[in-house]
Write a structure and sequence with these properties.
With 428 residues, the chain is α/β, with parallel strands linked by helices. The protein has 17 helices and ten strands. The chain is 46% helix and 13% strand.
Length: 428
């Protein structure tokens, strides 16, 4: 069981998982129509990294600066690495918020932002739960309590399949791999195939939805780290059980015998099915959460930060966000087209707009990779392609960075060059 508060036994978890499956089946029969974002003709949003939320003063300053710069939406990171920048029933707070029961970072952000007419979306990192260099300090963190639910890379698969996840060597091996491959993996991920992981993430979303006056909720890291994940025991066994009914009896018998000597026999022998299976794990979670949100609060918008390169997302991260848009299980996609190349940016945003229409696309702009002029140029490109809005990454970078002239702020320089023609209307 993942939750530290309140504790539950395995029977409760199994009951929740079965009930969730039944609820998903019923929801699929009545797929709601995607929410087209209301309010102004253009959404002007910023991603706000979690560290800004640790002090009331920095929250108030953030809201003031964002509003003054002509933005109308903040997407604030409330789950960074398996922790909670709000009062969570399911996960521990990060060290800066530990022991501060009187301060609710998310509630304070919502209060300040709504007072100024800004919309607030809660940004939730889905599967990335730890940095390799700095693991969580809280012993109740998922990586310590349930290492068996962490994603395993292919090079460690055969070794760790026979290691007790509770043994120190198991977590150490995953951390060492992440540190040695930091150019390809950001840290430790949970296994997207594990039913308990899906249930845990769903519980986080519903907890936020029911207890906070949010305008939207926002997926991030809703994907695999790369094509060489996830070969954990739970993922391999679930793939076997998923595949076996489609095999002839003689083939099943032969592979059952081979599995005893090689736990990767199914993934190695059926690579196309293995890719489909992994893609399905991500899509199932998105679909279930979407239905859960719409059942409770139909007007709350569900969005996702997705890989800007749609083919890379589909083939290497198993994130089929174009299908989510087509099927109506995502209201808005925010392609992270982080580049200083205007033409590459144009190509990636055009793909998203052509998939489902501009009304369901907010163009993700990497301000940290651009000058003010480069960012403004990309805003203009997104407008020309018909995107409903833009999201800049990140507030935290722009608040520190200077503009085009000495003493000018990046935020205000963007306002003057991109938003000066008309003030951004409140979206509430």
């Amino acid at each position: 069981m993942l939750s530290a508060d309140p504790p539950q036994d395995d029977r409760v978890m199994r009951t929740r998982t079965v009930a969730a499956c039944l609820a998903l089946s019923a929801a699929c029969a009545r797929t709601p129509r995607p929410v087209i974002p209301p309010g102004p003709a253009e959404v002007r949003a910023v991603w706000v990294v979690r560290h800004t939320l640790t002090e009331p003063e920095s929250v108030r300053a953030m809201v003031r600066r964002v509003a003054e710069a002509g933005f109308n939406t903040v997407i604030v990171q409330v789950r960074g690495r398996g922790d909670a920048y709000y009062r969570s029933r399911w996960e521990p707070p990060p060290p800066p918020l530990a022991g501060r029961s009187g301060y609710d970072a998310l509630a304070g952000t919502i209060r300040e932002a709504h007072r100024r007419g800004l919309r607030v979306h809660a940004w939730i990192n889905t599967h990335l739960v730890a940095n390799a260099d700095t693991l969580a300090q809280d012993s109740s963190h998922l990586v310590y309590r349930r290492p068996d639910l962490l994603a395993v890379p292919l090079p460690l698969a055969r070794e760790l399949y026979h290691v007790d996840p509770g043994a120190p060597r198991y977590l150490e091996a995953l951390v060492e791999y992440a540190r040695a491959n930091r150019d390809r993996v950001e840290g430790l991920y949970t296994s997207p195939a594990a039913p308990e992981v899906k249930e845990h993430v769903y519980s986080i979303w519903i907890d936020l939805l029911e207890r906070y006056d949010l305008d939207g909720l926002h997926f991030d890291y809703v994907r695999y780290p790369g094509p060489d994940f996830d070969y954990s025991r739970v993922a391999l066994e679930r793939f076997r059980d998923w595949l076996a009914p489609h095999l002839a009896d003689t083939v099943r018998g032969r592979f059952a015998a081979l599995e005893a000597g090689d736990p990767l026999v199914y993934t190695d022998s059926f690579p196309d099915a293995w890719e489909r299976f992994r893609r399905q794990q991500i899509t199932e979670l998105v679909e279930r959460i979407y239905h859960g949100v719409k059942k409770r609060k139909p007007g709350v918008l569900v969005s996702a930060a997705v890989f800007g390169n749609a083919e890379d997302a589909y083939s290497l991260r198993f994130q089929d966000w174009r299908d989510w848009l087509r099927r109506g299980i995502l209201d808005v996609a925010c392609p992270m087209a982080y580049t200083d190349s205007t033409e590459l940016f144009r190509e990636r945003i055009r793909t998203a707009v052509e998939t489902a229409g501009g009304a369901r696309v907010w163009a993700g702009i990497g301000a940290y990779r651009n000058t003010v002029d480069g960012t403004v140029e990309q805003i203009d490109v997104a407008r020309g392609l018909g995107a409903a809005g833009v999201v800049l990454f990140s507030y935290d970078f722009m608040a520190r960075q200077g503009g085009m002239r000495p003493g000018e702020s990046y935020l205000l320089a963007v306002r003057d060059r991109a938003f000066a023609a008309e003030r951004a209307a409140p979206t509430r």
